[in-house]
Write a structure and sequence with these properties.
It is built from one helix and no strands. With 49 residues, the protein is mostly helical. The two termini are 44 Å apart.
Length: 49
């Protein structure tokens, strides 16, 4: 069974302070995978792959 965790204690910041912190943040790198699927609702046609 999952239980909710208490909210993290974050310092109070204004929107301007948050934007300034984002601009000066150093990110070493990002990685991930993007998967996209689409179902157009078209019937399958026999003999086509």
């Amino acid at each position: 069974m999952l239980q909710a965790a208490p909210e993290p204690s974050l310092p109070a910041m204004s929107a301007q302070q948050l934007l300034a912190a984002i601009q000066t943040a150093k990110v070493n790198g990002l990685s991930g995978t993007v998967v996209q699927t689409a179902d157009l609702g078209l019937p399958s046609l026999p003999g086509l792959t």
